[in-house]
Amino acid sequence: MSTAFRFTQPPPPRSATGRVAEVYAQLALDFGINKPVTFVVLSSAPELLAPAWALLRESLIAGPGSRTGKELAALGVSLANRCPFCVDAHTVLLHATGDHALAEQLARGRAPENEEHARVLDWGQRTRVPGAGLEPFPFPREHAPAYLGTALAFHFINRIVSALLTENLLPAGAQRLRPVRSLAGRTMARTVRRTARPGAALPLLDDPGPGPDWAAGTAVGPAYSALRTAAAAGAGLLDAEDRALVHDTVRAWDGSHPPIAWPALPDRAERPAARLALLAALAPYRVTGEDVAAWRRPEHTDHCLVHLVAYGAFAAVDRIESALALEHRP
Predict the structure, then answer these.
(1) Would you say the pTM of this structure is higher than 0.70?
(2) Catalytic: 304?
């Protein structure tokens, strides 16, 4: 089992059956990575795995618009969320698109030389702030569902990754070496540059709703709706008082990173579930083994932990999505 997992031991991918096996098959075909840990970590809760993959696939991979542009938006999101694992992953994926010089500029912490690329990267970063002005879009309006879906997908995935995985995309952080980044990207190039058919992930979902207005008429909408429903199931792991605390705190969130001295963060000994959910929502990189241990009980399986983290993660996604102020719906 990979050492990438911090607090869970997901089922070995080779043992996957049913819907989990179907997700892994689509990942290999359309994402170009065989059983990536970013999704294996969700396999402890298959009902979360399928919609998380569907949202990423239908927006980033199969949605309209430049793959380079959507990778830049996802990279901007990951930078805003302080998720080094995902920052490294999108740098590698930019190599896969063939934009090698751009990938290396970003890997060195430099701004893109191309003004359009710089605008998309900045747009992705600004999506962390609820209610931020995101228009005019730095991409064609008809591509907005794919770009918005990509941003929201990675606001969720960043939080899962930061809370439940280590920072190393490759063993010993090898992705930080330029030849390794380039080679890793080139191995995925054929898959990344292939046109994917929209909607192929939707059969993995159970009766999803149509989704938000900004995604109307696209496969992004049902995928987003299904992930929202699946993540909401984690509410059952908190009592009513803790749910209210998480709801009220996230609703008041302005997109900033919480200070080290964070008065709203509950004590782990007194309200460990609320603490974990709030950390997952607003500062998942601060989840510690002590936080998880304080919450764990014999009845708290890996399935429960993934659901609790997903509940907190999607609370932040919902705060961002519900605050979208689009002048003209796509």
Answers:
(1) yes
(2) no
